[in-house]
Design brief:
alpha/beta, about 280 residues, Rossmann fold, 13 helices, single chain
Length: about 280
């Protein structure tokens, strides 16, 4: 596969490994990344025998950049991934999400658990843990930029007119330099910055999932994360009722797929193996 469609939108996707593999792993990038973020993780997963699908998600694929912020609610973003799995002929799959991709992974685990074998979130805690940490801890201060992104038009100008400053900020946060220019170039394309920012602007319209997660779940947190604090990470266990694994990477930044791809791949493969070895769960 090179592309798939959902409704009127067309998405670009990297399809690696054998299409006849018994199991598929879907990799979901975050903000302001693209499927490129998984390029060093993917070979480890393919070598282990998995088919790997990594899409450019809504707002990032040129053929899927609606203007309305309501087009970016979590249920619609998760629907895109279900459409990907259907197009690939995959009934159940493993999902790994980073940053906003982790948000989509939590949505899939909450409302499409029957389609998942396992779920892994990198950096992004359970949404309700995030809210609780924002109300009772310092997460609200760490998430100041999310409020800035609600402003119409102004944040888009930052991507087009302040590239040098944004480049310094992303590099200082731990994102390897070789990725920074690629991501900023993507967001300079027509409609891309608006689409990426609309993920944040759609939050007030996204459904509030209250059901506990039953899917076997792994959450990975880097202690040098500039955007997400430890409290939300620790609270995430309260919202998972299925098998749960919590991994802490000391000194690792927010940008785990780019910074420590082998570590990420090995943890994902071990998580899948441990769930398989444990056998069916109630």
């Amino acid at each position: 596969m090179e592309q798939f469609t959902n409704d009127v939108f067309t998405f670009d996707v990297t399809d690696a490994g054998s299409s006849t593999s018994d199991e598929t792993i879907v990799l979901l990038h975050g903000f302001p990344e693209s499927r490129l973020s998984w390029q060093l993780v993917t070979p480890y997963l393919v070598k282990a025998g998995y088919r790997v699908l990594a899409p450019d998600q809504r707002g990032y694929s040129p053929g899927a950049r609606p203007k309305a912020r309501r087009a970016y609610t979590l249920d619609k973003l998760a629907g895109d991934i279900i459409a990907l799995a259907d197009a690939a002929g995959v009934d159940r799959f493993h999902v790994v999400g980073h940053d906003w991709g982790g948000g989509v992974a939590w949505e899939l685990a909450t409302n499409h658990g029957d389609r998942l074998r396992t779920m892994t979130s990198l950096a992004t805690p359970h949404p309700q843990a995030m809210v609780k940490a924002a109300l009772t801890g310092t997460q609200g201060l760490k998430s100041w930029y999310m409020f800035l992104f609600q402003l119409p038009g102004l944040p888009e100008l930052g991507f087009t007119r302040m590239k040098g400053r944004m480049r310094k900020q992303l590099t200082a946060s731990g994102l390897p330099e070789e990725y920074v220019d690629e991501y900023l170039e993507l967001l300079s394309q027509p409609g891309a910055a608006r689409g990426a920012l609309n993920w944040y602007r759609a939050l007030p319209f996204s459904p509030r999932g209250g059901e506990p997660v039953l899917v076997p779940t792994m959450y990975i947190y880097g202690t040098a994360d500039f955007a997400l604090g430890r409290k939300a990470a620790d609270l995430t266990a309260d919202y998972v009722k299925g098998p749960y694994r919590y991994e802490i990477l000391e000194g690792v930044s927010h940008w785990m797929p780019e910074e420590v791809p082998q570590v990420v791949a090995e943890l994902v493969l071990d998580h899948i193996k441990s769930v398989r070895d444990a056998g069916p769960t109630e």
